[in-house]
Design brief:
With 279 residues, the chain is α+β, with helices and mostly antiparallel strands. It has a single domain, classed as Double-stranded beta-helix (4-Layer Sandwich). The strands form four sheets. Strands 1-2-3-14-6-16-5-4 form an eight-stranded mixed beta sheet, covered by helices on one side. A three-stranded antiparallel beta sheet has the order 13-7-15. Strand 4 and strand 5 form a beta hairpin. The radius of gyration is 18 Å and the shape is globular. Bound molecules: succinic acid. The site of succinic acid (SIN) has 11 residues, from strand 6, strand 15 and strand 16.
């Protein structure tokens, strides 16, 4: 299979693509290279009409490289590679409900994730993605030059720690790793390891400041960058259907899971792909 034979529909001008007519369980090496390229270019690719078993999900993920085992989410006891992104009928809090970049708190942030829809609510529960290439491209040359010299500090402690955001919610008891501490410093603007494009690499969930700046100074700059990042033209919406699989690149996107389906169950299986230090 070559890139020419993939059936691709862009999800928005700058972010996301939908692919049909491929079978991820049986995709050739060439087909996989084409999907990899598309994920790096478009940030997220949603593939429709798949029928991946958990074993096939794991086998497909291993073809991308190492699996990054998530420390915090519930896991499938049979398959520790698979993190459960789950919200039940009686719960009101969801996982991933604010804009974020998975695992940016790690020294080697995860490359991306492969999310398989297992149980969907009758409506709602979409996932939004925003292009960090487009966010970067939207800035002036002067601000880009300033940002290119800056590094930002990331952690998950205020989210998953014992006093963190989730601790007092109705999904707090289902999470793991409350004692884990994370700390990483990454450039504010990275060069994407595969596409070579510049991308903004700060996010509202896990970035806590600019290295060497006060909290107040950091927040002023970060809030401005976040407002640029979620301009409507940067954002794509993945509307889930049974059999949908989304593959995204954390170096090129943010994402957030809409929490607009109270009273219904939504179960997604996520495998996170290991990444590398960012420059
Ligand atoms: C996540 O990985 O942040 C969750 C995405 C989703 O549930 O749609």
């Amino acid at each position: 299979m070559t890139a020419q034979t993939l059936s691709i529909r862009p999800l928005s001008d700058s972010c996301g693509a939908e692919v049909t007519d491929i079978d991820l369980a049986r995709i050739s090496d060439t087909g996989l290279s084409d999907i990899r390229r598309l994920v790096a270019e478009r940030g997220v690719v949603v593939v429709r009409d798949q029928d991946l078993s958990p074993q096939q999900h794991i086998a497909f993920a291993r073809r991308w490289g190492e699996i990054d085992y998530n420390r915090f989410f519930p896991i499938d006891p049979q398959y520790p590679e698979i993190a459960l992104v789950q919200k039940d009928e009686a719960q009101t809090t969801n996982i991933g409900g604010g804009w974020h970049t998975d695992h940016s708190y790690d020294v080697e942030p995860a490359m991306g994730s492969i999310l398989v829809a297992r149980e969907l609510p009758p409506s709602g529960g979409d996932t939004l993605f925003s292009s960090m290439y487009a966010a970067w491209d939207s800035l002036s040359d002067g601000l880009k030059a300033t940002l290119s010299a800056l590094r930002a500090v990331h952690t998950s402690d205020h989210i998953y720690g014992p006093d963190g955001v989730f601790a007092k919610t109705d999904i707090g008891a289902t999470l793991r790793g409350q004692d884990a501490h994370t700390h990483a410093v990454h450039p504010v603007a990275i060069t994407h390891p595969d596409s070579g494009r510049k991308a903004l690499f700060v996010n509202p969930a896990f970035t806590i400041g600019i290295e060497g700046w006060t909290r107040e100074e950091s927040q002023a700059l970060l809030q401005y960058l976040y407002s640029r990042a979620i301009q409507p033209q940067n954002v794509a919406r993945v509307e889930w259907r049974p059999g949908s699989v989304a593959i995204w690149d954390n170096r090129a996107t943010w994402h957030m899971a809409k929490n607009d389906y109270h009273g219904h169950r939504r179960v997604m299986h996520r495998i996170t792909l290991a990444g590398s230090p960012l420059h």
